[in-house]
Automatic annotation (TrEMBL):
Organism classification: Eukaryota, Metazoa, Ecdysozoa, Nematoda, Chromadorea
GO terms, molecular function: carbohydrate binding
Name of the protein: Galectin
Keywords tagged on the record: Lectin, Signal
Superkingdom of source: Eukaryota
Length: 209
């Protein structure tokens, strides 16, 4: 209550005290014409202690190989296949498997595949959580640990774009940006970046799973 009264008295917007919320951007032209593509740009590059949370589901009625992919790209102006991806996560429904790796631009546009696991998603809504650590990304699906991807040639420090192909964020649950989200904060500057329920939020602190 004291925090809220302070905000009202000072006339500050939510962004001034560690909470930013905006509607998920419209689709953009991606590498595949028949697969919906979106991306969001973070307010700053990733840091150790940050968390990325993706709440969504595979786009229905998309027949192009039935694959869903999520990338953590360097920079703020991504050009797919020409931009480094420090995490390339793909749910391959056609092969019933999950592929985890990364990408360095190359003439053959081949991704480095480090680990292949059984398919981690169904066609129901999912929650993917990526914890940024000093030596790699710890990946969780629906609160269960899946895999830790160690950094290859580049780490988290220049990542500022989350890139999505075939991910539906317009689920039945809608988040009202006027409802502030507060998460435990150590004072270390960590943030939780959340994409889902039609919005993209940045919250100071580490939001629980």
């Amino acid at each position: 209550m004291v925090k809220l009264l302070t905000v009202l008295f000072l006339g500050l917007s939510p962004a001034a005290y560690g909470y930013v919320c905006n509607t998920v951007p419209d689709p953009v032209a991606g590498p595949h014409n028949d697969i919906p593509t979106r991306f969001v740009v973070l307010s700053r590059p990733l840091r150790v202690g940050d968390t990325v949370v993706i709440n969504g589901k595979v786009v229905p009625d998309v027949q192009a190989k039935k694959r869903l992919s999520i990338d953590l790209l360097v920079g703020t102006k991504p050009v797919y296949y020409k931009t480094v991806s420090t995490l390339h996560f793909t749910a391959q429904y056609d092969l019933n498997q999950t592929s985890i790796g990364d990408y360095q631009p190359n003439k053959n546009q081949v991704f480095r595949e480090e680990k292949v696991l059984p398919l981690a998603f169904t066609f129901d809504p999912f929650s993917l959580r990526v914890k940024v650590e000093a030596d790699g990304y710890s990946i969780y699906v629906d609160k269960k640990f899946l895999y830790k991807l160690k950094y290859f040639k580049e780490n988290y420090s220049t990542v500022q774009t989350l890139y999505f192909q075939n991910v539906d964020f317009h689920t039945e649950c809608f988040i009202d940006c006027k409802e502030e989200k507060v998460c435990p904060n150590t004072g270390g500057g960590e943030k939780t970046f959340i994409v889902g329920q039609r919005v993209f939020r940045e919250v100071d602190g580490t939001c629980p799973a």
